[in-house]
Design a protein that fits this description.
Keywords: Membrane, Transmembrane, Transmembrane helix. The chain has 18 helices and two strands. The protein is mainly α and 470 residues long.
Length: 470
């Protein structure tokens, strides 16, 4: 087994102790950095369509003829959709335990207080990513909030954390089923109005216009408006492309409603439960030594096969539900017993995330492609910088105040951009860490959290000296 550097962590009792200062290079867990790097690069596979194409045009791949772009999208949906973000969330949960395992600083500041400051600054960076860099699917803001609620859970045992994760996952599924049931009620009300109209026309065929009550009109208009909003609107699609190819202010005004919807109502209704379940699971996995390469090879092999087999089977089973919802929403509501893709999502992601992580750790143990693990470790060590770098590179490439390629590329061409960004981030991360302790934004985040300017260059002394916050 490849030896680990974090010898001060007792993974059996899982109450590790540290002096409260930023993690030094010598005490990092390389496998966590590698997995974080894989998850970070993998997230771009799902994010790139939202950067470069309208949601309506991507959905048209499902409604239209099933060519190469459709099969590429389907492959990504089954293998990676939400799975990489699930793994990223699990690792964030593991990071909560790592941070809170520290005792206190020389100034006497307790770890929970520093952790709250760390999360509050993450919320600020998330708002910058969403409202300044204009990435409307930002997760930093959400992670900042969720982390504050989760830090008391570090005292729970691994089994208790898994139980909590399952309960929260069931809440997520239940909320989507509740929403589905409400839509079903609206559809049934609409059907009653349609049946009433047909009955009156059959009795009095001369009456071309049937008079409805206000409630009946509302029931009919509500459903028809909802169905219309889910159909492809070529005019609206062109308007979106035109807005996204415009100047910064126009793009900002166009994206603001979506940013507000994602960071507020969607987060509190659904996103919160999704992230909490994965982070709790990540905390449990860390306590079992999963992320730090402590399991046996046979255990990782079993988890890789079992996790991917179960997770990918769930993804395949949920695909028809996912596509029918886009192709014919009325048929989806009227014929489905439950929204299978939404109900299975937290469990599909959990099994697949564990499966992918186990497979990566098995490959890492094999000792092959050491240059690749070094690159992925560097990307993971600078995940905060690289996540925001993806926002900068993609918005400048696609949006109108940059190169203006929004809506201009075919679906498959987006992944040439992904490959280029991966190469840039791998090379940049490795080169940067040859001279510096942290990524540039990791350094800023740590300095703001600790209230002291952290040493940046590898040749600098490790003890922070200069206070930058009163």
């Amino acid at each position: 087994m490849i030896s680990q550097t974090l010898s001060s962590v007792d993974l059996a009792g899982m109450e590790p102790k540290f002096n409260l200062q930023p993690v030094a290079q010598a005490t990092r867990i390389q496998t966590i950095d590698i997995l974080r790097g894989v998850a970070l690069l993998g997230i771009l596979l799902m994010n790139i369509p939202a950067f470069g194409l309208t949601e309506a045009s991507v959905q048209e791949l499902i409604r239209g003829p099933h060519g190469g772009n459709y099969w590429l999208k389907t492959l990504i949906y089954i293998l990676f959709e939400n799975k990489m973000r699930a793994l990223f969330s699990m690792l964030f949960g593991a990071g909560i335990i790592l941070f809170l395992a520290k005792s206190r600083t020389g100034s006497g500041m307790a770890a929970p207080e520093l952790f709250i400051r760390r999360q509050l600054w993450l919320i600020v960076f998330g708002l910058i990513n969403a409202l300044v860099l204009l990435w409307h699917y930002d997760i930093l803001f959400d992670y900042g909030i969720v982390g504050i609620f989760l830090f008391p859970f570090k005292r729970l045992s691994a089994k208790a954390l898994v139980l909590c994760a399952v309960v929260v996952g069931l809440i997520y599924s239940g909320k989507y089923y509740w929403d589905f049931a409400e839509q079903k009620q609206k559809y049934e009300k609409y059907q009653k109005v349609v049946a009433f109209e047909k009955k009156l026309k059959a009795v009095k065929p001369a009456n071309k216009k049937v008079k409805l009550t206000d409630d009946q009109k509302e029931d009919k208009e509500t459903w028809e408006g909802m169905v219309k909003s889910k159909k492809y609107d070529k005019k609206a699609d062109k308007a979106t492309i035109l807005a996204m190819r415009s100047d910064y202010v126009t793009v900002w005004n166009h994206l603001l409603p979506q940013i507000q919807r994602m960071e507020a109502p969607f987060f509190y209704q659904f996103g919160l439960w999704d992230m909490v379940s994965m982070m709790l699971l990540g905390m449990a996995l860390f306590k079992w030594g999963f992320f730090s390469n402590k399991l046996t090879t046979s255990q990782y092999a079993l988890l890789a096969v079992g996790g991917l087999l179960i997770g990918q089977t769930m993804a395949w089973l949920s695909l028809p539900s996912h596509e029918l919802k886009i192709i014919d929403y009325s048929k989806f509501i009227s014929t489905s017993i439950l929204p299978l893709d939404d109900v299975l999502m937290p469990f599909e992601r959990a099994f697949s995330g564990i499966g992918w992580a186990s497979l990566i750790l098995l490959l890492y143990r094999s000792g092959i492609a050491q240059w690749l693990w070094k690159g992925l470790s560097a990307v993971g060590q600078m995940a905060f910088t690289n996540y925001l770098m993806q926002s900068v590179l993609c918005t400048l490439f696609f949006y109108g105040y940059g190169l203006g390629y929004y809506g201009d590329l075919k679906f498959y061409q987006l992944y040439f951009v992904v490959a280029e960004i991966w190469l840039i981030q791998l090379v940049f991360s490795v080169a940067w860490l040859q001279f510096f302790r942290f990524g540039p934004l990791e350094w800023l985040w740590r300095s703001l959290t600790y209230g002291e300017r952290q040493p940046m260059r590898l040749t600098q002394p490790a003890t922070p000296k200069t206070s930058i916050l009163a």
